[in-house]
Amino acid sequence: MMEIATHLRVVIGILCFTLVGIIIELIRQNRLKEHYAIVWLLTALSIFIFGVWPDSLNFISRFVQLHHLTTLSMVAFLFLLAIVLHFTLAISQLFDRNRRLAQEVAYLRFELDNLKQEQE
Amino acid sequence: MLTSEQLQCSVDNEKLTMDKNLSKRTLIIIPAYNEEGSIAAVVENICKHGADADVLVVNDGSQDRTARKARESGAQVITLPYNMGIGSAVQSGMLFAKEKGYDFAVQVDGDGQHPANEIPSLLAALKDGVDVAIGSRFVQSTAYRPPFFRAFGIKLFSFLVSSIVGKKVYDTTSGFRAINRKAIVLLAETYPHDYPEVEALITLHRNGMKFIEIPVEMNYRQEGKSSISATAGVYYMLKVTLAVLVAVIKRRK
């Protein structure tokens, strides 16, 4: 059995609920795309489960021979790493699209100016 | 006011743009960022030497009067909505050439270091089934002697590209290039972002393009400074080396 204090579980639980609350509010205000919210919600959910029911993390703790809290931090860290990678992918894709868009805009503006001149 | 020579250039351009069936059409692409001081002279020089080519200045979000100066000297101008870097600017030119159905494109810097009178010899090289002709400083001994650090970079890139391409390439960083329709279509689709010259060679090679180097004598800057400062030089070398290695493992387009 893991030796984790009840008050610590409560703190972790509250933290997770706050995180979920913030994320839902951000989606509601149209500031966060649902697509990215999913991975955040998964992070909150996993920290919640592993934090409040430490037994669920026991097998990993035993496997990596770390204390429960350290294992929890590790799991959270891995999730954050996944989120950052996800963001970098998204930024790369946005960069390419933004570049093509700007080039197309420049080209269309050239064509538009020409058309206008022809009409005059 | 336009001088008669400038007018001559614009008239030629118009005639060419209108007559779509004219044998082979060539577009000279000049990327320019804040080049109001030199752009007019560059365009006029090209009009004088480039004979029957259309001239396109890609104004890379300049804050000065680059676009106006270029238009006044007889070039067509497209303006990018913000400064996007040389790679994106050149690619915009390729996109333009692709959409307008040009058969050849020549890339010339906006600062006047590339000799306009060599454009015909670059284009002539393309007629023999070569896809890309590079105006090169180092094929024969030219007057250019680069500083030590730059010379090292030039050797390193030459070695890297040569071993990937399987043929000696001397001047991999030259931005003075002529390409045919096949390469235009490819580069309009995929072109590196910053410090693009070396990486673009790998992209071209990986897609089966053949290139040739034509010795040219470049005009070295009397004023202004290179876009690559000393500290940026290290980043430049690392970035390009990495980009080249990545380009080798990238999937073909």
Notes on the structure:
The complex is a heterodimer of chains A (120) and B (253). With 120 residues, chain A is an all-alpha fold. Chain A has helices at 6-28, 34-52, 55-64, 68-119. Chain A contains four helices and no strands. In chain A, helix 1 runs antiparallel to helix 2 and helix 2 runs antiparallel to helix 4. The longest helix of chain A has 52 residues, at 68-119. The radius of gyration of chain A is 24 Å and the shape is elongated. The termini of chain A are far apart. Chain B has 253 residues and is of the alpha/beta class. Chain B has helices at residues 4-18, 39-49, 66-72, 86-99, 119-126, 148-165, 181-189, 196-206, 230-249, and strands spanning 26-32, 54-59, 76-79, 104-107, 132-136, 177-180, 211-215. A seven-stranded mixed β-sheet of chain B has the order 3-2-1-4-6-5-7, sandwiched between helices. Chain B is globular. At the A-B interface, helix 4 of A face strand 3 and helix 4 of B.
List the helices and strands and how they pair.
The complex is a heterodimer of chains A (120) and B (253).
Chain A: H1 6-28, H2 34-52, H3 55-64, H4 68-119
Helix pairs in contact in A: 1-2, 2-4
Chain B: H1 4-18, E1 26-32, H2 39-49, E2 54-59, H3 66-72, E3 76-79, H4 86-99, E4 104-107, H5 119-126, E5 132-136, H6 148-165, E6 177-180, H7 181-189, H8 196-206, E7 211-215, H9 230-249
Parallel strand pairs in B: 1-2, 1-4, 2-3, 5-7
Antiparallel strand pairs in B: 4-6, 5-6
What coarse outline of chain A follows from CA principal-axis ratios? elongated
Question: Treating each run of at least 4 consecutive H or I residues as one helix, how many helices of chain A?
Answer: 4
Using only CA atoms, what is the Rg of chain B?
Answer: 17 Å
Low-pLDDT parts of chain A are: none
* Order of strands in the sheet with most strands of chain B: 3-2-1-4-6-5-7
* Percentage of residues in strands of chain A: under 5%
Radius of gyration of chain A: 24 Å
Q: How many strand units of chain A?
A: 0
Mean pLDDT of chain A: 85
Helix content of chain B: 40-55%
Q: What is the multimeric organization of the chains shown?
A: heterodimer
How many strands in all of chain B? 7
**Major interchain interface with per-chain residue totals:** A-B, 9 and 16 residues
Strand content of chain B: 5-15%
Number of helices of chain B: 9
Outline of chain B:
globular
Instruction: Give the topology string of chain A: H per helix, E per strand.
Output: HHHH
Helix content of chain A: over 70%
Q: Indicate the low-confidence ranges of chain B by residue numbers.
A: 1-8, 10-22
